[in-house]
Structure formats: structure tokens, C-alpha cells
């Protein structure tokens, strides 16, 4: 017996587990810095807590939900929701129509999944959650394209939103990938919202490291008919191997770019600002860009305060298009494009908040 979180509740749970992981990673960094100050290096880091997202995703799971017959009290549901900062009612997956519940604490969704598409991860005693990829697929029916993409970029990226943090987000390992979402979608051809998922996957990239990167990536990836810049042939934060010249300037074998167009060897990088952390990190960014230039990669700086405006984004797109030898972008509807820019670069929250 047990119950399985689904839809927005599952997505909210994975965000909660991401914050647990981010807390642990931050603690590791603090401890490593303290030990380094007294000359202690290469200490084995403490294991991540059991409720960290990556630990759960690497742990036990079910392949079928036919055995999940929720028989839990309202009190138990409220306790679970409180412990995991989940809003009521909890959305859960049930195996047949007779098990649907609408008592103010749960909403049951009857859905059948193949073994390939639906691992159900253990998240507590007799409690499970659908995978991050499946939660995104379930939400595609209710979210519009932009809201879905913003959430999918976060799940496929290395950050999670956190209103309590000064930057508004924290770092953690990716929850899923565009490939995993596509594979799950292929196993669920009749599920409501699948067409929306397949459409949105054309514009989804792995590897975003911040909400600001997500906003720019979506603006670049969307076609002109959807008021984007149609310059989406880029990769996000992929490792670029450095040759002898680059390593002489930047003492690493590889480095990453915010956005990279490999066919043209052009990198798009957010310029120095508060989002890129400490002064030491910004100095490292500067050395990294010098190393990339030495490797023949043209680095195009982008100022966040500029691209968050419609005029600035279009000007940046025009400059980038010329360097890529592509048509200068012209969104189909200027009024709608302005609204899209405001929406992408505005306040970031999760759809269920």
C-alpha cells in the first residue's frame, strides 16, 4: 500500500528536495573552505542527506503503480505535506477510478503508465513520487508553453528557485534532461498534453545555471512566429576543451560558456554582475574568457540589464545573428514580443506558488 505524488505536487516535492540538496552542498563548501584555511585538503565530503533530490533519484523505485492503493488518513496527509512544505490538496496518482479522492487533502489522477516511462521513487514510508520528467509531462496539459519551458529549463538545469536565498536560486545537480523527457513522452503517446510536450521540446536545452540564463535561452530558442529570436542552435554550459594556449592562461583542461554556438565558435556570456558571485569568481570569469579567445572562440558579452528590455534583447539578437551569419531576427508581433521579454526576465516563481 502507498500513495504516489504526481502533477504539481510531485514537481513541488522535487523542488523541495532540491533545496535540501542545495543546503547540503553549501555546507560542504563552507566546511571545505574552513579546512583549507588550516591547511587540510582532500577530505572526503559528508554524504548528502536521504531527502536530497539526487539521492532519491539514485535510490529504490517501483516500475508499476498498480499496487499503489492510497489508504491514508487526512491527518497523515497533512503531516506529510507539512514536513515537505507541500500545499494541500496533494495531487496523487491512483490505479483505478474507485480510488479517486477529493476530501480537501488529496486529488486523485487515474493514469496508466508503461514500465519504461514511469519509475515511482520512494520519498518516505509508503510514499512515492513520479519522476521529474513525468511530472513535467503531466503539467504540460495545464501550463502554457512559456511556463512549461521555464520550469523544464530549471529541472534540466543546475539550479532551483529559492525565495529565501539572496540570489533567488540555489545550485544542485540536474533533476532530469530533455532526452529523458522525450523518452518518457515516447512511452506515453496517449497521455493528455503529450503534443504540448513534443512541441516544447524543440526549444528546451539542458544545462541552464540560473533563471537569467533560462530567460535568455528561451528568447533565443523560440522561433519568430512565437516572438523569439530564432537563434537556438546553442549549447548551455558545456565543457570546452582547452589547448596549450588556453591552459597557459587558465589553469584548467576545460571551461564552460553560458551559451556556445559550436559550429561558429561563438560564445555568449553574461557580463560581470552580482549574479556571477564573488570578486574571485568574476576574476576567474575574466581569465576564462581570455583563454577562450586564445583558442579562437569569439566571446560576445551580454549585460543582463540590457537584454531584460525589449530593445536591448533585439539589439543583442541582431549582433549575434550577424556574427552567426543568420538573418537579423524580427519578432512577428512587437507588442507580444515585449510582453514575452517582460514575462521571461521578470519575477521568477513556480506555477503552483
Please write out the topology:
Layout: E1 3-5, H1 7-37, H2 53-57, E2 61-62, H3 74-83, E3 90-94, E4 106-110, E5 120-124, E6 127-130, H4 132-139, H5 145-156, E7 159-161, E8 169-171, H6 178-186, H7 194-201, H8 211-221, E9 235-236, E10 239-241, H9 244-249, E11 254-256, E12 259-261, E13 266-270, H10 279-294, E14 298-302, H11 304-307, H12 310-324, H13 334-344
Structural features, described:
The chain has about 350 residues and is an alpha+beta fold. Helix content is about 40%, strand content about 15%. Strand 7 and strand 8 (about 170) form a beta hairpin. Helix 1 crosses helix 4 (about 130-140), helix 5 crosses helix 8 and helix 6 runs antiparallel to helix 7 (about 195-200).
Spatially, the strands of the biggest sheet line up as 2-5-6-1-3-4
The run of helices and strands is EHHEHEEEEHHEEHHHEEHEEEHEHHH
Number of helices: 13
Q: Compute the gyration radius: what is it?
A: 22 Å
Q: Main beta sheet, described? A: 6 strands, mixed
Report how far the terminal alpha carbons are from each other: 30 Å
Give the strand content: 5-15%
Low-confidence stretches: none
Quote the average pLDDT.
88
Bin the helical content: 40-55%
Amino acid at each position: 500500500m502507498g500513495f504516489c505524488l504526481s502533477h504539481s505536487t510531485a514537481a513541488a516535492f522535487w523542488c523541495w528536495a532540491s533545496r535540501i540538496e542545495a543546503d547540503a552542498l553549501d555546507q560542504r563548501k563552507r566546511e571545505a573552505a574552513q579546512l583549507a584555511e588550516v591547511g587540510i585538503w582532500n577530505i572526503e565530503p559528508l554524504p548528502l542527506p536521504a531527502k536530497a533530490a539526487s539521492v532519491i533519484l539514485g535510490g529504490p523505485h517501483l516500475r508499476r503503480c498498480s499496487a499503489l492503493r492510497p489508504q491514508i488518513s487526512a491527518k497523515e496527509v497533512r503531516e506529510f505535506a507539512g514536513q515537505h512544505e507541500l500545499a494541500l490538496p496533494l495531487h496523487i496518482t491512483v490505479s483505478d477510478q474507485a480510488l479517486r479522492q477529493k476530501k480537501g487533502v488529496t486529488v486523485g489522477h487515474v493514469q496508466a503508465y508503461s514500465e519504461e516511462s514511469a519509475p515511482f521513487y520512494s520519498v518516505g514510508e509508503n510514499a512515492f513520487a513520479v519522476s521529474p520528467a513525468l511530472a513535467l509531462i503531466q503539467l504540460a496539459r495545464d501550463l502554457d508553453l512559456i511556463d512549461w519551458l521555464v520550469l523544464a529549463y530549471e529541472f534540466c538545469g543546475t539550479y532551483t528557485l529559492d525565495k529565501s536565498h539572496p540570489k533567488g536560486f540555489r545550485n544542485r545537480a540536474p533533476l532530469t534532461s530533455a532526452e529523458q523527457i522525450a523518452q518518457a513522452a515516447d512511452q506515453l503517446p496517449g497521455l493528455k498534453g503529450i503534443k504540448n510536450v513534443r512541441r516544447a521540446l524543440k526549444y528546451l536545452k539542458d544545462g541552464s545555471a540560473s533563471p537569467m540564463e533560462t530567460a535568455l535561452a528561451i528568447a533565443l530558442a523560440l522561433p519568430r512566429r512565437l516572438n523569439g529570436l530564432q537563434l537556438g542552435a546553442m549549447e548551455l554550459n558545456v565543457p570546452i576543451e582547452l589547448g596549450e594556449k588556453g591552459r597557459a592562461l587558465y589553469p584548467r583542461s576545460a571551461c564552460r560558456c553560458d551559451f556556445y554556438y559550436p559550429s561558429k565558435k561563438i560564445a555568449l556570456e553574461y557580463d560581470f554582475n552580482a549574479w556571477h558571485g564573488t570578486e574571485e569568481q568574476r576574476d576567474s570569469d575574466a581569465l576564462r574568457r581570455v583563454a577562450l579567445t586564445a583558442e579562437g572562440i569569439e566571446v560576445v558579452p551580454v549585460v543582463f540589464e540590457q537584454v531584460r528590455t525589449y530593445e536591448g534583447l533585439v539589439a543583442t539578437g541582431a549582433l549575434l545573428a550577424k556574427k552567426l551569419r543568420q538573418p537579423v531576427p524580427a519578432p512577428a508581433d512587437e507588442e507580444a514580443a515585449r510582453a514575452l521579454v517582460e514575462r521571461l526576465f521578470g519575477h521568477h516563481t513556480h506555477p503552483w506558488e
